[in-house]
């Protein structure tokens, strides 16, 4: 929106519901909420206000990338998934505009669900053979293929989103602190929930998506210690159709709404469209992922229930990588795209996050950046 090990979190059975019911009328800690949520949970004390900070925008130096031929190998879903791949596509589009990439010097190819490994190798090899350089592999699923293909084309600069290839000096990892951004939308969920009961829907039960779950749960509990959480993954590790099954996403989302959750956060690729549909049908709220999904045309019918999105700035990483190649300065890229470099964050489109809640979020953000809060990338047991 991806190293594989499975860890689960069984939050539904260990969270107390009593405090949620008892505090349904609100408490003195409710000041600073968006007005719709604090009645549901007893909220923790607000974090200290964030100090004003100056912008760390780019250096503004004009970079000419018109001589580049750029290839993108998308994960399943490709351009138009309203999530992870679309964010990568946005970075490519920005490179076209800002760096002067020529329209005929860009090629985009897309993976098929559960395709054979040699299909990924063929896709990468095709781009390299046709002279595309740099090439961005969008998704950790390309890691094994890059181990084979990258050494065959030592002069081609590859990048992989959400992965790394040990020993391949011509492969740049573009990785993110998804758990940090997810912490912040967990806070949003706690403030938006009237039932003090929220849900998480993951596409595939793998360590990458568990990072979203872990941060979300930690943020929600930091804001409202008694909050109840539902969680479910659409498919187990190894079955990547969970990222492209809106119907299953809707069924799981509906189940969480029926269980009492009134804010659903999805990290499920194109399957998230179904989670949004379930939230809308059940009069619940939803939180998107990767892109600002409130503004995504492919989920426009559900935009009224989307209160925020966890921004995973794949667009920034893709653009910065292409720009760094054009400048011949790959060393300038951050090791991790985290809150400190605005590599993750939260969206405010739709007007559901008022100034008071924004101040709370910025307070938590400042504490994470300062190291006063450490966000786990693994769900608690």
From TrEMBL:
Signal peptide per UniProt: 1-21
Main location: membrane
Cellular component terms per the entry's GO annotation: plasma membrane
Gene3D superfamilies in the cross-refs: 3.40.50.2300
Keyword Membrane: yes
Keyword set, alphabetical order: Cell membrane, Lipoprotein, Membrane, Signal
Localization annotation: Cell membrane
Sequence ranges assigned to domain ABC transporter substrate-binding protein PnrA-like in this UniProt record: 75-347
Name listed for the protein in its UniProt record: Nucleoside-binding protein
């Amino acid at each position: 929106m991806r190293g594989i090990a499975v860890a689960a979190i069984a939050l539904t059975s260990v969270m107390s519901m009593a405090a949620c019911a008892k505090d349904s009328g609100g408490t003195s800690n409710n000041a600073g909420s968006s007005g719709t949520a604090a009645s549901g949970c007893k909220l923790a004390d607000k974090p200290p206000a964030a100090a004003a900070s100056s912008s760390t925008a780019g250096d503004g130096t004009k970079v000419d990338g018109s001589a580049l031929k750029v290839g993108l190998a998308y994960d399943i879903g490709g351009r138009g998934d309203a999530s992870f791949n679309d964010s990568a596509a946005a970075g490519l589009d920005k490179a076209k505009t800002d760096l002067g990439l020529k329209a005929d010097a860009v090629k985009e190819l897309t993976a098929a669900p559960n395709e054979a490994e040699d299909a990924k190798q063929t896709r990468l090899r095709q781009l390299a053979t046709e002279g595309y350089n740099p090439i961005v592999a969008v998704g950790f699923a390309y890691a094994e293929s890059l181990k084979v293909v990258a050494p065959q084309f030592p002069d081609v600069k590859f990048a992989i989103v959400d992965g790394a290839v040990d020993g391949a000096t011509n492969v740049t990892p573009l990785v993110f602190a998804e758990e940090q951004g997810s912490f912040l939308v967990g806070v949003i969920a706690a403030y938006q929930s009237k039932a003090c009961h929220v849900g998480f829907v993951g596409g595939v039960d793998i360590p990458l998506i568990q990072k979203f779950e872990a941060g979300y749960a930690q943020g929600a509990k930091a804001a409202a210690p008694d909050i109840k959480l539902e969680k479910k993954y659409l498919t187990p590790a190894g079955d990547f159709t969970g990222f492209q099954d809106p119907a299953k996403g809707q069924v799981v989302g509906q189940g969480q709404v029926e269980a009492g959750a009134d804010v659903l956060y999805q990290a499920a690729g194109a399957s998230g469209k179904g989670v949004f549909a379930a939230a809308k049908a059940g009069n619940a709220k939803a939180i998107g992922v990767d892109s600002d999904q409130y503004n995504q045309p492919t989920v426009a019918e559900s935009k009224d229930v989307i209160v925020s999105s966890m921004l995973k700035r794949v667009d920034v990483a893709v653009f910065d990588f292409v720009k760094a190649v054009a400048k011949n300065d790959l060393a300038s890229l951050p090791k991790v795209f985290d809150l400190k470099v605005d590599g993750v964050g939260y969206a405010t489109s739709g007007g559901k996050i008022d100034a008071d809640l924004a101040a709370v979020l910025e307070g938590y953000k400042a504490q994470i950046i300062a190291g006063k809060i450490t966000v786990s990338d693994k769900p608690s047991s």
